[in-house]
Amino acid sequence: MARSETVSAVTESLGKLQYVDDNGQVTGFATDVARAVAERAGVELDIAVMPWARAYKVAQEQSNTLIFSIARTPSREEQFLWVGILCQTPMFVWGTQEHADANYQSFEELRTQSFVVTQGSRMDAYLKQHRVKQLTSVANQEQILGMILRGRVDFTITSDFMMAEKIAKHGFAPNDFVPVFKLDDMDNPLSLAFGLDTSSELYEAFLNAFNELQSENVIADISKKWGTSCR
After folding, report:
1. What is the rounded (10 degree) CA torsion for 167, 173, 179, 180?
2. Which member of 34, 92, 190, 202 has the greatest number of CB atoms within 10 A?
3. Residue 176 contacts by C-beta under 8 Å, 6 or more apart in sequence?
4. Does residue 145 contact residue 166 with C-beta atoms inside 8 Å?
5. Does domain 91-186 have CATH number 3.40.50.720?
6. pLDDT tens-digit map of 100-150
7. What is the pTM of this model?
8. How many CB atoms within 10 Å of residue 104?
């Protein structure tokens, strides 16, 4: 594959996994992995950061487009060409301290509560699948924690390491939010993937490159560089 070829990639801002820095550059653990894989595959990446629902749509409709970090869920299995796992972390329902003593035994007990999550995310799909009575889906995930603290909604769903990053970023106290229920059925790995309208040559090049970098511990080294705790 020619070195001059450029491949489009889409993503959302998601903590240390991928974000736009103060210089306007896309960076982060997953971004570094995606670029390393692309370089090994012999191409360059043109990465666009956008709301998740739009990124998801672009990856499905635009040919030869990489998307990250996308959860590999059963419902998405046949909708994408999967390159490799970036990160795997447990998911929790989070609320404020007033829920700290709650002892929920099943998610069914939470269905009547109100939730806020990112529009088009796997959390959004999960809550719709479980027919949660009150669901707010927002394009900008930066709104979520403030909505919970102001009492506009009760809960959100995210991983422990992402919650820690969000709390630190927005200057909240570490004990402002507590996990109230672990969602074992949402333990899906975050991955690199292509839309189905992708050439077999490009997909195989990325698949082989990812496997090589993984076996050489390059991806593990990138994880250490960023201090990610999700692998």
Report:
1. -130
2. 34
3. 96, 97, 145, 149, 167
4. yes
5. no
6. 888 899 999 999 999 999 998 999 999 999 999 999 999 888 889 999 999
7. 0.81
8. 14
Cα–Cα distance measured from residue 186 to residue 64, given in angstroms and rounded to the nearest whole number: 28
pLDDT of residue 2: 46
Looking at domain 6-88+188-226, what is its CATH homologous superfamily? Periplasmic binding protein-like II (3.40.190.10)
* SS3 assignment, position 133: coil
Three-state DSSP class for residue 78 = coil
CA distances to 102, 124, 142, 163 from 57, rounded to whole Å, are: 38, 15, 21, 26
Q: Identify whether the C-beta of residue 120 lies closer than 8 Å to the C-beta of residue 52.
A: yes
The answer to whether the beta carbons of residues 97 and 178 sit under 8 Å apart is yes
Show the tokens assigned to 94. 């989070």
**Average pLDDT per 10 consecutive residues for the chain, totaling 231 residues:** 77 90 94 98 96 95 97 94 93 93 92 94 93 92 91 94 86 92 92 98 98 96 84 53
pLDDT of residue 231: 53
Amino acid at 96: T
Strands (E), the chain: 6-11, 19-20, 26-27, 44-49, 65-71, 80-87, 91-96, 114-118, 134-138, 156-159, 177-182, 190-195
Inter-residue contact 101 to 95 (CB < 8 Å): no
